[in-house]
Structure formats: structure tokens, C-alpha cells
Design a protein that fits this description.
The protein is mostly helical. It has two domains: about 90 residues, no CATH class; about 40 residues. The protein has six helices and no strands. Helix 2 crosses helix 3 and helix 4 runs antiparallel to helix 6.
């Protein structure tokens, strides 16, 4: 399958928006940590179903220890992010929480430049500054 990455990036944005709306509704009458737990179970079931349907089980390819290490670290970061996000949704308006969460885009640009050696050009830098400015305007 030779689908452009942008298709999946737009899909990610659409589903992230729905995540914020559904999450806000979901945490309205329960503990945010418990809500995160339920969400995680659903994520596991959905991804397991996709892997099963596509015949991409755990033995479908080589798995290196370095890759596993970084996936474990990514999973820990994801879990902590979700816990913080759901607590923020519980305490604040979704229209302000979600944009602040998207400051992760700016942090990714900075970390990708510093840690991965990705090029920081003027368009990327300006975009990151505009995201930051927009987030500050929304969050105030």
C-alpha cells in the first residue's frame, strides 16, 4: 500500500478531535484515571482486532531489543500523556485543553531538531511559533 503519509496525518487529527470531545463527555461523571484505563482497554481491543484481521501478529516480523526499548518508553509517555490529558479534560474546557495539548507539535519540532538531527527551516520554525502564539491566545 503506497498511501501518502498526509492521509494518515489528517486521519490522526480527525480522530484526535473526536478523542477530545468524546473524552470530555466520558470523564464528566467518573474518575479521570479510571476513564483513561477504560480508554486504554478499548485501544488494545481495537488494535488487536486490526492486527488479527490483517494477519500481523507478533511473529510477523523481526523485533529488535532497541526497538522494543523505545516502544516501551513511548508507551510509558503515552500513558502519562493520556492520564494528564483526561485530568485536564475533567477540570477544564475541551476547547482550551485540546489546543494546549497540541503544543506537543512544537515540542516535537524542538526535540526532533535536537535529538534526531532533523532540519529546522524557516517554515517549520515559523509554524511552530504560530502554533505557540495560537495556543497562548486560546489558553488565556
Amino acid at each position: 500500500m503506497n498511501t501518502d503519509w498526509r492521509v494518515f496525518a489528517v486521519g490522526s487529527a480527525v480522530f484526535a478531535a473526536l478523542t477530545a470531545i468524546f473524552g470530555k463527555l466520558g470523564v464528566s461523571d467518573m474518575n479521570s484515571d479510571l476513564a483513561t484505563f477504560y480508554r486504554t482497554i478499548v485501544v488494545l481491543v481495537v488494535i488487536a482486532a486490526i492486527l488479527f484481521a490483517r494477519h500481523e501478529g507478533p511473529l510477523s516480523g523481526p523485533i529488535g531489543t532497541r526497538g522494543i526499548l523505545f516502544l516501551v518508553l513511548s508507551g510509558i509517555a503515552t500513558g502519562l500523556s493520556w492520564l494528564c490529558y483526561y485530568r485536564a479534560l475533567q477540570l477544564g474546557p475541551v476547547s482550551r485543553v485540546a489546543p494546549v495539548d497540541k503544543l506537543s507539535v512544537v515540542l516535537v519540532v524542538i526535540l526532533a531538531t535536537l535529538l534526531l538531527g532533523e532540519e529546522l527551516n524557516w517554515k517549520l520554525g515559523l509554524g511552530a511559533l504560530l502554533i505557540t502564539a495560537g495556543t497562548v491566545l486560546i489558553a488565556l
